[in-house]
Recover the amino acids of this structure.
């Protein structure tokens, strides 16, 4: 369970650094502003060989993971007291996280819903053994 939570925590912070184009003000909302706190994450892992899917839903403790999108195109990830800053781009439907710790892959979070209080994103990933779909719910 802890490993699946780390899938998002490490993943969000594992991107190649480069400077994105400036955000258009009309596209900057509604994700900018307050800090978004991860309240639930569901990961579906499908084994490459057996094609068996395993679903795990976690509810991290308050403050364990949060992300802030500022108006200058920077995101700030907070994980248990640690902080990571880097660039993001937002086209109104997909949040692209650029640069950070670890692997050199850009992360794309597709917004499935967003309100003033809640952001739900879907992310796809893959490793040597399985494919993953992670659905994360954030509140502010």
């Amino acid at each position: 369970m802890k490993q699946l939570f780390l899938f998002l925590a490490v993943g969000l912070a594992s991107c190649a650094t480069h400077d994105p184009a400036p955000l258009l003000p009309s596209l900057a909302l509604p994700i900018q502003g307050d800090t978004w706190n991860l309240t639930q994450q569901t990961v579906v892992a499908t084994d490459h060989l057996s094609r068996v899917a395993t679903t795990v839903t976690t509810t991290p403790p308050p403050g364990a993971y949060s992300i802030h999108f500022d108006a200058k195109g920077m995101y700030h990830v907070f994980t248990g007291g640690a902080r990571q800053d880097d660039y993001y781009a937002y086209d109104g439907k997909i949040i692209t996280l650029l640069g950070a710790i670890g692997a050199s892959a850009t992360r794309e979070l597709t917004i499935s819903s967003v309100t003033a209080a809640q952001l739900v994103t879907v992310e796809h990933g893959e490793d040597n053994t399985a494919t993953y779909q992670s659905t994360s719910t954030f509140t502010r």
The longest strand covers residues 35-47. The chain is about 10% helix and 50% strand. The helical segments are 2-12, 25-28. Residues 67 and 77 are 4 Å apart (CA to CA).
